[in-house]
Amino acid sequence: MLLLLIAAPVTAMLRGTGDQTLVADMRPEVVSKLLKSVEQKWIHSKAMVLSNTTDNDQAFVDMEQSCIKVSTAIVEGSEGQRDRVSEYMQDVCATDGTNDDKTLCSGFASGITGHMTDDSEFNRDELKLSQFCRNFWEHEVTTAAQAEAKERAEEMEKERVEKEEAEKKAAAQAAEEAQEAAKVKAYEAEEAAKAAKAATSKAAAASNAQTNETSAASTQAQANETSAASGTSNTQTNETSAVSSQTNATATPVEAPATPVEAAAAPVEANSTVEQTTTTPAPASPANSTTNATPAVVVAMVSEKQAKTAAMNATVVKNATVVKNSTVAIRK
Predict the structure, then answer these.
(1) Lowest mean pLDDT segment, chosen from 111-115, 123-127, 139-143, 264-268
(2) Is the confidence at residue 312, as pLDDT, over 90?
(3) Are 258 and 325 spatial neighbours (Cβ–Cβ below 8 Å)?
(4) What sign results for the dihedral spanned by CA atoms 104, 110, 112, 115?
(5) How many helices (H) and strands (E) are present in the chain, helices listed first?
(6) Residue 42 and residue 145: Cα distance in Å, rounded?
(7) Residue 136 contacts by C-beta under 8 Å, 6 or more apart in sequence?
């Protein structure tokens, strides 16, 4: 019944106002949504005033226009009767919404009824609601704007902290990635150094092997040259031995003297011959010196030569002794 009574006059009042945020439908749920929307705009404007981004007087002028339209529609729709306004606003504020929305709605309703009188005709035709709108702006709207500013500040602080933590996390991750990259780079450098060292060692080993081969070849060549020289020395020694043997073989034989005087002199000559023959091997010392530097085979050959020479010398001495004995026998 109440809705039917207020619908017609409110519709007539709102037509032609040019305010697209207001509607002609005065059902409580519709008016509740409308009131929440305009109240949020008022709170936002007041919050901008508190943050010094909007002028307070200009913000109130904008708020006052929509506030007077909504409140006047409610009063005229109830025929200026305060009780009916109070009952209707209870239905409006009872619809779904947050506690803050309901608190603000209740403040708006009590503000309207508080400015109304018991004279329905006066309320309908002469009631001035600009003072109500001013009080509502300065108190309920300001309180809600302060709460919103605080909430907004907390959100901004939360966003700042989250951003800072995200930046720290990103920096830590970047540092970790850089550290991992440095480890990889150091590992690669170490592996490269190992490979270079191995290559150097391999090259040194190859160089040493080549040097050893060259040294071995040089040693072998020198040994061959020494063997050839030893063979030449042996040949010369053999030739010397042959000459000595030939000399001993062609020595003048000792003849028996015709007279005692010649026989007596014969031993001396024989001894001289023996002494001369014995000393014949002495010139072979240089050959012996050379032979000592040769292999064992050369030494054996020289020793055999010396043995043969000694045997020939002994034979000469023996022959001289026989001649001497013969001479003594003749003298007797």
Answers:
(1) 264-268
(2) no
(3) no
(4) negative
(5) 11, 0
(6) 8
(7) 67, 107, 108, 111
